[in-house]
Amino acid sequence: MIRLYSLFALIDLVLIIAALISCLSAEEHEIRALPRIVWVILILLFSPIGPIAWFVAGRPARPIKLSNGTVWRPGSGFPENQRPRPSAPDDDPEFLRGIASRQKKEDDDLMKKWEADLRRREEDLRRREDEKE
User: Fold this and answer.
1) What is the C-alpha to C-alpha distance for residues 128 and 71, in angstroms, rounded to an integer?
2) DSSP string spanning 117-133?
3) DSSP string covering 6-47, please?
4) What is the pTM of this model?
């Protein structure tokens, strides 16, 4: 029984040391979820849960080799100023030209209707005045 406990203690010690070395050698901006100091405290105080949590949720993500031979690092997308963004319709000059021409056509049609209605009313008034005389 003592051998089993000493084996578990040895495994726990190796796990703590490996997690501490991994945590302390990782770049600060690559550490996930929590700041480095919090990870060190978790690793030291909450053994073996702390070291296991570090390896699962804290250490930097590994680069992934894509099928075309390039390497992609998780979280290494586009820089903020180069990130492709969907353009809003009001940023598209072609869309704006289409709206302007459609609006102009609608305005012209409405104006023609008003002018035709005005002419018809004027003619009706003239006819009424001619009938009165």
Assistant:
1) 87
2) HHHHHHHHHHHHHHHH-
3) HHHHHHHHHHHHHHHHHHHHS-GGG--SS-HHHHHHHHHHST
4) 0.50
